[in-house]
Amino acid sequence: METLLFFIILVFLIAARPNHIRFVKSDNGSASGHSLAGALLDKGTSGEFMIYSHLEKLGEPNRLLPHLHLPKSDGTTIEIDLVMIARTGIYVFESKNFSGCIFGDEDSRYWTQTMKRGPKHQFYNPIWENESSISSLKRQLALEADAFKSYVVFSDRCTLKKMYVQSGPVKVVNRHLIVREIIKDMAELPDIFTPLEIKQIYSELALYTLTAAAIGQARIETVRLE
Description:
Elements: H1 2-25, H2 36-41, H3 43-55, E1 63-71, E2 77-86, E3 89-96, E4 100-105, E5 110-114, E6 121-124, H4 126-141, E7 148-154, E8 158-164, E9 170-174, H5 178-188, H6 195-206, H7 212-225
Parallel strand pairs: 3-7, 4-8, 7-9
Antiparallel strand pairs: 1-2, 2-3, 4-5, 5-6
């Protein structure tokens, strides 16, 4: 049984390798700092990796950027799970790789996760989390709010219950529905970026695809210089 399990994991690692290389390095060599095994075993990173793998199916001219660390107005940074730049706008993804049942709405400060066995768990409204990410992107790129689309993506292991979301540019979906929903959005929305503008935005944001480790090292170097 252990041999069979090892073989299954090995086959999956080999199949996922090309996606993972693009996920951690993107087109210009910036790294997320996660090995493939690490990305798949780390709960949060594996969720982002799987979203990335789904979105890659949409092809060009769309461009994907994982693990952005943008500066905030107070001097700190905000981490953005994943961004996709497309003709119809900039899609900003907040990944929640949870299990169980999820209850929440866009106006509540906290949402609730319940499991069949175990206590309830409250977590900060992920729509509000993504709004903070979009605010930083708006400031960085000097773009209007209607250029951004907010996607909160939960794993396929959880059930979204009593989910009240009415804002047009906000979607809360399970992972397997993400491509379908974005294709639907793209069909209904006008193009606002040319392929050249997509590349320019990508190049500007790619400067911020630093890992937490890289940011920490940069801070150490800054202290040394001071």
